[in-house]
Amino acid sequence: xxxxxxxxxxxxxxxxxxxxxNRLYEGIIDGTLEPGETLLDDKLTxxxxxxxxxxxxxxxxxxxxxxxxxxxxxxTRVAPIDLRxxxxxxxxxxxxxxxxxxxxxxxxxxxxxxxxxxxxxxLRKAAKSADLPQLGRSFNAFFLEFERGSGNRVLLAVxxxxxxxxxxxxxxxxxxxxxxxxxxxxxxxxxxAKAHDGEKAAELVHALYAPTLDQxxxxxxxxxxxxxxxxxx
Length: 233
Known about the structure:
- This is GntR family transcriptional regulator.
- InterPro entries: GntR_C, TF_FadR/GntR_C, Tscrpt_reg_HTH_GntR, WH-like_DNA-bd_sf, WH_DNA-bd_sf.
- One of its GO terms (molecular function) is DNA binding.
- Residues 14-81 form the HTH gntR-type domain.
- There is one protein chain.
- It is built from ten helices and two strands, in the order αααββααααααα.
- The chain is mainly α.
- The chain has a two-stranded antiparallel sheet.
- β1 (68-71) and β2 (75-78) form a beta hairpin.
- The longest helix has 23 residues, at 198-220.
- It is globular and about 55 Å long.
- The termini are far apart.
């Protein structure tokens, strides 16, 4: 999709790199910037109304999380949809969310539960309007409350770093997680969280992710015989 000629909202002068990063991040997730699209500095500066420096800084940060590909003197582009990378991220995210729920739910405070409830309401609206980018953002916000509540900074940092691939997953599958009622499944998890039942919440998270995890293992895990023959690849 061609870049807009000019953004209707000029970029704030403060924290330019972060503002530009957020604009580009959202543009990639919602499809304004399509997979494989070349990102030219002059077009980005015209669109966002900023100099090249914050744009290059933002692009390097996006490259670090796998949303942009940069080859010196060749191209800078939106990373193509990589189904294996998405599968790997979903596999890892499911394990992290399950452990975070088990750890955090017994001690979640009312503020965290309120934010989860808000995220669930936003997810329901997005599901009704088939707004997949917003559905993904709401889904991500819902589960990150478990990581935040766990008090484990490493767990939170890793989960946040996997978020972009999770959002891309939601954007390319019309029926994320194979769930007919994704909001209903999250509603059950929220009820377990409100009851401070960590084991129940973890079980429900595991059940939500199980089909995706099974598919990942089926597609990519070597057989026991293959591992025995060649333990290192």
